[in-house]
Structure formats: C-alpha cells, structure tokens
Design a protein that fits this description.
Blueprint (H helix, E strand, L loop, with lengths): L1 H31 L4 H13 L1 H12 L3 H26 L2 E2 L2 H22 L1 H5 L5 E2 L1 H21 L16 H32 L4 H13 L1 H12 L3 H26 L2 E2 L5 H18 L6 E2 L1 H20 L2
Antiparallel strand pairs: 1-4, 2-3
C-alpha cells in the first residue's frame, strides 16, 4: 500500500510538469501559425488531455466493465465543469470569448443531451433494454465530425480578449514540448489511475462509484493540471477551452469510439449524473452573464467547486 501511495504522488508530479510543457508548447504553436489559443485549447490540448479517458473507457468496454466506461466519461465531464473550472477560476477569474458562451458551451450541453437521447431506449422508445449501440456510436462520431468542421472554420479567428504575452519557441522545440507534455500527461495519469483504483478497491468501493469518482478524477487530472497552469499564466482561452473541448471530446469521440468497438449496456441510474452535467452547464452559462459579462468570477468558481463537493458526497452516500 505504501508503494501505491508513492507512485500516486509521482503521477501527480509528472502530470503537473507535463501540463506546463503542453501549455507552453501549444501556445507557442498557436501564436506562430496564427491559430487562436481557444482553437488550440478546444482541439490539440483537449484531445491530448482526454487521452486517459479514451484509454480507460476502451479498456473498460473490452473487459466488460460497462459501468466504469460510462462512469468514467460522465464523471469526468462533471469533474471538468464543476471542480476544474472551480479551481481554475479561483486561481484567476476566467474571461471567455463571445464564441465560447455563444457556441462552445451550448455545444457541450448538446453533447450531454444527445447522449441522454441515444442511451435511454426504455424511457423514450419503450424498448426492453438501454444501451449505446454501434449505430448510436456512429451518430456520436458524426457529431464529432461536425464539431471539428466548426473548429476548422474558427481556427484563425483572433481572440476578442486581451491575451497575456506568450513566449515563442522555435517550431521543432515547441512541437517536442507539446508532444513530450502529452506523453507525460498520459503516463502520469496512468500511474495515478492504476494506483488510485487499486487503493479504492482495497476499501470495497463499487465499479459504478469507482468510475464516477476515482477513474473520473484520475483521468481528468491532465485537464485539471493543464487548466490550472493556464489560469496561473492568465491564458484563460486555453484554461476554459481545454475543459469545454474535453467534455465534447469525451462524449462525441470517446464514447463514439468505445461504442463502435463494443456496444455498451446503459444503467438508468446514470441519468442522474447526466442531469447534473446538464445543470452544471446551464449554471456556467448563467454565471457568464452575471455581473461581469463573459467572466467566471472567483465567487462563482467557488460555488461550482462546492457543487462538486455536494455531488460527490451524494454519490458516496448512495453507495
């Protein structure tokens, strides 16, 4: 048990260092090629930090741990919205672009809504079972394709915010930094998740709770590290773009790929967690329009963080 705790700490350190390399490298690439920070946050950074979720969900599906696969993705999205934006917003108030409030955040809400619509066959269509079929998974991937088309059209848009100065590295160095950061994130997340799950199992936690909490938090650590580092550097585009992009990636791409590999039976108990995800997205949009337009203030970030604490306590209490 002692060794597992040591490896857990080592994983955290690797995550933080990897996040710093990723943010610096990707920001440099964005500036050098005229691509907006938000586009980088929504694509390169979001995809890289979502790699642990992809690996965990696919592995869980192949091994038949369907609750872990769904719990990982849905739990990660709630972790992203409530805890990560809460912590990042406490570090530095997050001012976002108009397009983020107008398009990206509603798109993340659409992703949760589409997932609810596709997996609740009993509730909506009177079927005998619930699940994400291969056809449903293809639908998710089609939505992901539309998301990429949107990003492509906005890649060179300049930010409507005053962005902090970003150090420009030589292109090969910036690429190596970004790639090295991604590798560090994936490796660090694997260390954290493997040892955290092992520790959790020793205390007799269920697969569903492990998926919604331990796996969700563990696989979202890259997003947490990346957004916190970006917030500290006052690069709010990457801080919030990483979270919103990851949430869209998680549902449209990760569950899409996972469902194509193997159809996933769905437990209606997860609907509550989808409701939390939809509600948290609505709250984020409301906060963006209160007091300071398009800004998540520290008190609002604190409220989101407390929301995650209440949600987690509820999950544990229902175990």
């Amino acid at each position: 048990m002692f060794l597992q705790f040591v490896l857990l700490i080592v994983g955290f350190v690797i995550l933080i260092v990897g996040a710093d390399f990723l943010v610096n490298g990707s920001s440099s690439i964005a500036k050098k090629f005229g691509i907006s920070n938000l586009a980088i946050g929504l694509t390169v950074v979001a995809f890289g930090t979502s790699a642990p979720e992809l690996l965990v969900s696919v592995t869980s599906s192949i091994k038949g741990y369907n609750d872990a696969a769904f719990g990982n993705v849905i739990g990660s999205n709630n972790f992203n919205l409530l805890l990560i934006l809460g912590v990042a917003g406490l570090i530095y108030p997050l001012v976002v672009q108009r397009n983020t409030v107008k398009y990206e955040v509603p798109l993340s809400m659409l992703a949760a809504g589409v997932l609810f619509f596709l997996v609740n066959d009993q509730l909506l269509w009177g079927s005998d079972t619930n699940g994400l079929s291969r056809l449903d998974a293809v639908v998710l991937l089609l939505f992901f394709g539309l998301f990429l088309m949107y990003i492509y059209r906005t890649m060179t848009n300049t930010s409507d915010l005053d962005e902090s100065p970003i150090k420009i590295y030589k292109t090969p160095i910036a690429i190596l930094m970004a790639i090295g950061g991604l590798i560090g994130l994936v490796f660090g997340a694997d260390l954290v998740v493997t040892n955290a799950v092992s520790i959790a199992k020793s205390y007799g936690l269920s697969q569903k709770l492990i998926g919604l909490t331990i796996l969700a938090a563990g696989t979202s650590l890259p997003e947490l590290a990346t957004s916190c580092v970006a917030a500290y550097k006052k690069n709010t585009d990457i801080a919030i773009g990483n979270v919103i992009g990851s949430n869209i990636f998680n549902i449209f791409f990760i569950l899409g790929v996972t469902g194509v590999i193997r159809p996933l039976p769905f437990e209606p108990a997860f609907n509550f967690d989808i409701y939390v995800l939809l509600g948290a997205t609505v709250v984020l949009m409301i906060f963006m329009f209160t007091l300071n337009t398009r800004k998540l203030d520290r008190w609002e970030a604190f409220m989101m963080l407390m929301g995650y604490v209440v949600y987690t306590v509820y999950l544990i209490g229902m175990e």
